[in-house]
Amino acid sequence: MRKIIIDTDTASDDAVALVCALRDPQLQVVAITTVAGNVPLELASYNARMSVEYAGTYAPPIYAGCAGPLFCPLETADQVHGKDGMGDLDQTPGCTPLRASTIPLTPGHAVDALIAHIEAEKEPIDLITLGPLTNVATAMRKAPEVMKKLRHITIMGGAHHYHNPHTVCAEFNIMVDPEAADIVCTFGVPITMVTLEACAGRARLGPDMIEKLRACGEIGDFFVDCNRTMIENARAAEGVPSFDLPDPVTVAVFSHPEMATTRFESHLRVETKGDYTRGMTLFIKPDDFYSLTLPEPLPLTAEIVTEVDPQQFWQYLLACARK
Ligand SMILES: [Ca+2]
To answer: Which residues constitute the signal peptide according to the record (predicted)?
Structure first.
């Protein structure tokens, strides 16, 4: 059993990821911290509470954190997840609204909770981040010695060769708060970055998988229903329903590292200044020409995952929906 804290800007794919983590017998979620990103903070916190309730296993404490990035205005992702982050089911004719959550938030700020939980653990624990890195960077600035006790950080974020609809080259979680991301990436705790191209493309779920998830019952229905906006976007664009699950892929890779079929070690930085490149993740490998020209080698602080085995991910997701 591996102890983890999950930091999340809970919208539809985060919701699936939380349910998977809470139903994965190899993981023990000791706390959930929420951050603004896909949706404003209040909605992210509400959606996290709802997801814990749907998981139907145990209820770790849930703490609300930072309501916006360190130095720039918040940008959300309504167009991908719906205005409420969970498919706007109560606003859509013919859809059954999701059950309201009765699980309360735990008092206290997520940044203080991160520090307190990490400090209280006897052994170093893991952190999985599924949203912008505002909470984590703030905790690192506030209590660096405690945050250095983290064993490892697994980040859903970044992109190797990917063009975001909003920017030329940044992935959403990093783009929302690039300064926070660069603080985390240079802090010194080892990182696994599960990039967007690992989570999209071949790992995308098509119509037959949507049907098989629904056949699993309430959890499978939840996985599909809360992703309604993304599924309908795909139906409108391509004629068939499909959706990506970046955050669940990241939890799955943490739980089953062998699922990552393409990975490499890298020095990792985030561009914070460029007009066209703000939020871009820079993966600098030892054999890059740039590295070879430096007097000292750059530290290899991160492992970058660019591909997962889609079948293994699908089996993991199905097992979490069925159990
Ligand atoms: Ca997320």
So the answer is: none
- Say which CATH number the domain at 203 has: 3.90.245.10
Give the Cα separation of 81 and 241 in Å (integer): 15
Q: Cα of 112 to ligand 1 centre, how many Å?
A: 21
In which region does residue 239 sit, left (phi positive, over 0), alpha (psi from -120 to 50) or beta (all else)? Answer: left
pTM exceeds 0.85, yes or no: yes
CA of 253 to the centre of ligand 1 (A): 15
Q: Residue 153 is part of which domain span?
A: 2-322
Domain count for the chain:
1
Q: List the shell of residues around ion ligand 1, using CB closer than 5 Å.
A: 9, 14, 130-131, 247
State the distance from the centre of ligand 1 to the C-alpha of 136, rounded, in angstroms: 14
State in Å: Cα 131 to ligand 1 middle. Answer: 4
Instruction: Tell me what the mean pLDDT of segment 169-187 comes to.
Output: 96
Inform me whether the pLDDT recorded for 165 exceeds 80: no
Distance 294 CA to ligand 1 centre (A): 36
pLDDT of 162 reads 63
